[in-house]
Amino acid sequence: MKFTDFNLHPSLMDGLNAMSFKEPTPIQTQTIPLIMDGHDVLGCAQTGTGKTAAFLLPILHSLTVNPSEKIATLIIVPTRELAVQIDQQLEGFSYFTPISAIAVYGGRDGQSLDLEKKALKGGAPIVVATPGRLIAHIDMGYVNFDSLRYLVLDEADRMLDMGFAPDIMKIVNMLPKKRQTLLFSATMPAPIRKFSQQLLNNPKEVSISISKPAEKIIQSMYGVEDEQKPALAEQILSGFKEMEKILIFAGTKIKVRQVSDRLLKAGFDVAAIHSDLDQSEREDRLSAFRNGKLKIVVATDVLSRGIDIKGIDLVINYDVPGDPEDYVHRIGRTGRAEAEGMAITFVNYKDRPKIYAIEKMMGREIPIANKGASSANQSSENRPERSDQRRKSYPPKHKPLNGKKKKLE
Fold first, then answer.
1. Rounded Cα distance, 37 and 41, in Å
2. 7-57 pLDDT, tens per residue?
3. Do residue 176 and residue 234 come from a single domain?
4. Three-state SS at 101
5. Fewer CB within 10 Å: C terminus or N terminus of the chain?
6. Can you tell me the distance from the alpha carbon of 126 to that of 379, in angstroms, rounded to the nearest whole number?
């Protein structure tokens, strides 16, 4: 199937051609016709499968055929980074159309607030917003949703995790009852299904490869205690100098700063991204990483969902995430759009149960990279079953370089 089969407006096809979009992904193939036919949609697909285009393209088609001078579409997202990303994709897709959009999110200066206010009062056809910032504008009394046609909730599972449900319902209660609602999520736990019942009207459900990382991602893990992780990170990065983009996930903002500082002192081209940075700093570093001017980024899970950066060669889980779903989202930053990628996870002794839960969810074992492990070089059919024997065979401790332990400074 090709994008021409959707009968999208010619100006949209011009934008797709300019962006070299040729064939739709499975989530786009199944979702776009449903949206164009007017159905509410509950969409679930793993990260990197093209969910954003799946809802943007049919909405842009509708607004191109039937223009609006007021707010016709509201897209609610959990993070500033995702708001910026969707706004950038909107700019590309709608380049040859007269449709305008505004991204509404916090962490910026007063001038940005004034620009948002002007666009909302003037009625930008498409508004992409984080819940808190949008409510701040709504409370000032000048936001009018009477002409709204579409409501989109993207990364809905993340928004619930972040406690945005009350804010979302406050916004939804201000919207017209007659509208088309699209809810997209990377996972579909019970709370999401219950939440969707409050918002969607007889929805069509589309689920693609739930909770499974891309097959082309080469996964491995090292057994290593915390004090040995810095030396192991340096060793791995030194061995992959040819890689152009490397993303390292750490569990806390403090750890992110420590890891970034240690690698910077060791001579690596690295920067940290976390929520304590000003928004402009985060955007500058993301832009440098996206454009290849920065090779290594150390980040918290703020970058694990919804950030589309092409060409990431390697993801390192410096710390094992507590939720198996977060592991899938982290390693999903590489191996996107059928490209190959690599993911390495550092596992200390106390994190072994977390790895077991991740393997159980994925239905596959993560190969052990440490040489000399009792099961490291066994073929999959000869490995121990998922039992206490398998758990005990998890990675042995990594041997410190030069027989010395190194600590974070």
1. 11
2. 999 999 999 988 888 889 889 999 999 999 999 999 987 666 788 999 999
3. no
4. strand
5. C
6. 52
